[in-house]
């Protein structure tokens, strides 16, 4: 095993010495070094992906993916800034119940809105109003199933992060 020397503030060293039980400070430091190396590696990988994206000619990205990305971004924004936990729980529960059949909701966005609202019997106008309130000027995009899929996946990505921290 390799050995290294590190410098720490005198106050920290005094506090470490004052701990009554034996602690493997080397193991703690090694774990911290490993965690930082992992973080740096992930950051470098993310930077490489961003460089590839910037390098690629946008003409190689099909329109469907741009529509999806727009929906994903708006779904994330709605979940982060406007939705309440009940909205996201209903969306998550509905997506889990639908499983691979959720693609139907991408073609029927008002049915999806009714699930999020929590009223399957809501009028189409209520669902339209919900989409208009959430999407504003982008409301016409709900006619694109890829946009709706992106919206759902963006919202659920935020919800997954919330649940993971809970």
How does this model look, in words?
The protein is mostly helical and 166 residues long. It has 2 domains: 25-56; 62-165, no CATH class. Helices cover 72% and strands 0% of the residues. Helix 4 packs across helix 6 (109-117) and helix 4 crosses helix 8. The chain is elongated. The mean pLDDT is 86.
Provide the domain count. 2
* SS field, number of helical segments: 8
Distance between the termini: 38 Å
Q: Summarize model confidence as the mean pLDDT.
A: 86
The main pleated sheet reads as: none
Number of beta strands: 0
Shape, principal axes of CA atoms: elongated
Low-confidence stretches: none
Radius of gyration: 24 Å
As a percent range, the share of strand residues is under 5%
Helicity level, as a percent range? over 70%
Order of helices and strands: HHHHHHHH
| Computed structural class | mainly alpha
Oligomeric status of the shown chains?
single chain
Topology:
Elements lengths: L9 H9 L6 H31 L7 H19 L3 H14 L4 H5 L1 H9 L6 H12 L9 H21 L1
Helix pairs in contact: 3-8, 4-6, 4-8, 6-7
Tag the structure with descriptive keywords.
166 residues; mainly alpha; 2 domains; 8 helices; elongated
Characterize this entry briefly:
The protein is an all-alpha fold and 166 residues long. Helix content is 72%, strand content 0%. Helix 4 crosses helix 6 (109-117), helix 4 packs across helix 8 and helix 6 (109-117) packs across helix 7.
């Amino acid at each position: 095993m390799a050995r290294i020397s590190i410098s720490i503030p005198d106050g920290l060293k005094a506090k470490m010495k004052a701990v009554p039980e034996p602690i493997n400070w080397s193991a703690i430091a090694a774990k911290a070094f490993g965690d930082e190396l992992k973080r740096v590696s992930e950051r470098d990988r993310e930077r490489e992906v961003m460089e590839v994206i910037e390098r690629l000619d946008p003409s190689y990205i099909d329109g469907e993916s741009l529509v999806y990305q727009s929906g994903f971004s708006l779904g994330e924004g709605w979940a982060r800034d406007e939705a309440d936990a009940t909205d996201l729980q209903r969306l998550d529960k509905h997506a889990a119940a639908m499983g691979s059949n959720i693609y139907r909701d991408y073609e029927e966005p008002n049915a999806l809105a009714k699930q999020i609202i929590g009223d399957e019997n809501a009028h189409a106008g209520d669902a339209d109003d919900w989409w208009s309130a959430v999407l504003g000027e982008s409301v016409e995009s709900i006619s694109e199933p890829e946009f709706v899929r992106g919206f759902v996946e963006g919202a659920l990505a935020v919800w997954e992060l919330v649940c993971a921290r809970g």
